[in-house]
Every structure is written in C-alpha cells, then in structure tokens.
Write a structure and sequence with these properties.
By secondary structure, this protein is mainly alpha-helical. The protein has one domain (4-70). The chain is built from 3 helices and no strands.
C-alpha cells in the first residue's frame, strides 16, 4: 500500500496504539480499525501531498552566456 509510510510518524503510531487498545477492550472490532487506518492513510497523504513540490529561491544570481562559460 502506498500510504503506509505515514504510519511510522508519531501521529500514526499513536493512532495505531489507540486502535489496538480499543480492540483489546472490545470497544471496536478489527474491521473498523482497519477502515479507520485506511482513511487516515488517505487523509494524511492528501494533506501532505503538496510537500512534494519544491521551490528554489536564488539570490545574487549572475547570468552568463554559453560563450562566457566556455572561455577560460
């Protein structure tokens, strides 16, 4: 599954521990926990997906022509 890397975050680990505890005390079943984790994975991927875009800001840039670059 493509979304699983987000489960190793602090938030993902805490969610997994909480769901495991709820399953242990029979407050929810494992099917519900799995559905909840899948929704978490999709939501966190959507929320953090924009972080794949990069911007480079350059300061004090000098432009050179190819001729200037090739001359010693």
């Amino acid at each position: 599954m493509a979304y699983q890397p987000y489960r190793i975050t602090t938030l993902g680990n805490s969610l997994q521990e909480s769901l495991d505890e709820l399953i242990q005390f029979q407050q929810i079943n494992s099917q519900f926990a799995l559905k909840f984790l899948l929704k978490f994975n999709k939501a966190i991927n959507s929320a953090l997906g924009f972080l794949k875009n990069y911007s480079f800001i350059l300061y004090r840039v000098k432009r050179k022509t190819m001729r200037e670059l090739s001359s010693p």
